[in-house]
Amino acid sequence: MTKPDLLVVGAGLFGLTIAQRAAESGLRVVIIDKRPHIGGNAYSSPDPTTGIEIHRYGAHLFHTSNQRVWDYVNRFTSFTSYVHHVHTSHAGVVYPMPVNLGTINQFFQAAMSPDQARALIAEQAAELGDKTPSNFVEKGISLVGRPLYEAFFRDYTAKQWQTDPEALPASIVSRLPVRYNYDARYFNDSHEGLPTNGYTAWFEAMIADPLIEVQLNTDFFAPGHQWSKEATVGAIPVVYTGPIDRYFDFNQGELSWRTIDLEEQHLPTGDFQGCSVMNYPDLDVPFTRILEFRHFHPERDYPDDVTVIHKEFSRFANRDDEPYYPVATADDQARLKLYQEQAAAEPVLFGGRLGMYRYFDMHQVIDAALTAFDEQVQPRIAAGQPFGEAGV
Ligand code: UDP
Fold first, then answer.
1. Mean pLDDT value across the chain
2. Which tens digits make up the pLDDT trace of 280-289?
3. Within 10 A of 182 (CB to CB), how many other CB atoms are there?
4. pLDDT, tens digit (0-9, with 9 covering 90-100), for 41-90
5. pLDDT per residue over 29-54, tens digit each?
């Protein structure tokens, strides 16, 4: 394509959604990605020997209560009836996670009713007094009391974040529901499922439009090609979904990210752990969880004598690692503000988990992209205005 109406940097869900909506409005779009595939960290592909679909960058479970997002994604794929459940293996015993009445009764070896369990946790959380929980520890204790916090959250979080939990935002622990009944679903949302034919088929359907051209293995920051930063910014509208600090050459210092190392094993059994995700919240186990991918698709005809697992090891990301999770300490937030001020002066829209430095789930990214398209991308292109100012 010679000169498109829009360049999208990054083929993750933010970029794909912007590109799809733009093409649907008649705009010509080029998407570039430095990786050899689309889908960002939601990318999956079949294991070559077993055919089992492997989420290449950690488990991705689609769930949303946002009807606009649910209607939108269903244009490109149907979803299976998979409902996510997680178990956690603490001190040699397996419990259901998130914390529910089953977890509480099993942990305290009790047969409490919902009201009794509520009263017990309230009594344990009373150590906080009138304080409004302002960080991960306080929020955790306020939700489940200290004994459950220490068993299931403290050390898992130490492994996952390697950051003083008092410096972590309370919002991280609020991702998990706490239930005083035996409902052990991981998510509370009204819609949930996995894309029937896999994540990649879903993403390919989003960009199956002749107005969209995808260039893989293309680095925005490498000079000397037509889609580079130097050749495009200011010349065509750009939506950038890479790390915001990278865009500005880290001129305010680096934002902190966690990355994940995955250790893959093929095991000669049809069922290694009996569920898709088993958490390991104790410090004597170096990984945080084990994924067994066959359980994401019980409806598929996978071989019954072999299974594929990933052990997840979390660590701080260096510049060359794939960023997964924004740590978002107070220092990070202060730095982010400085980057956002620079972003506002740039003729570029910043979006997605990396571009906005937000611990977004897939459905939140799609929602943000749909809004950004309607409120920023389309009106500005229509008016011939440069991007920038408020960012996305
Ligand atoms: N968490 C925990 N114990 C668990 C599961 C989660 O302490 O068994 C905490 C941990 O800090 C984690 C956060 O809750 O980072 C959010 O968990 P979630 O499963 O949503 O994380 P993700 O799947 O995005 O890695």
1. 96
2. 999 999 999 9
3. 12
4. 999 999 999 999 999 999 999 999 999 999 999 999 999 999 999 999 99
5. 999 999 999 999 999 999 999 999 99
CA dihedral 198, 201, 205, 211 (to 10 degrees): 140
Contact in structure between 179 and 144 (CB atoms under 8 Å): no
Return the pLDDT at 391. 43
d(CA 376, CA 379) in angstroms, rounded, equals: 6
Structure tokens at 91: 């001190």
φ/ψ bin of 193: left (φ > 0), alpha (ψ from -120 to 50), beta (otherwise): left
Q: How far is ligand 1, taken at its centre, from the CA of residue 173, in Å?
A: 7
State the Cα–Cα distance between residues 193 and 168, nearest whole angstrom: 30
Name residues contacting ligand 1 (CB within 6 A).
88, 97, 152-153, 156-157, 160, 172-173, 175-176, 279, 281
DSSP state of 54: E
68 counts as catalytic:
no
The pLDDT tens digits of the residues spanning 342-352 come to 999 999 999 99
Instruction: Tell which one of 148, 173, 312, 325 to mutate to probe ligand 1, the residue whose CB is within 8 A of the most ligand atoms.
Output: 173
Atom in ligand 1 nearest the alpha carbon of residue 173? 14
Q: Are 63 and 192 in contact (CB under 8 A)?
A: yes
CA angle 45-48-51, nearest 5°? 70
Q: Give the predicted TM-score (pTM) of the model.
A: 0.96
SS3 294: helix
CA 181 to chain centroid, in Å, comes to: 27
Tell me which amino acid residue 80 is. T
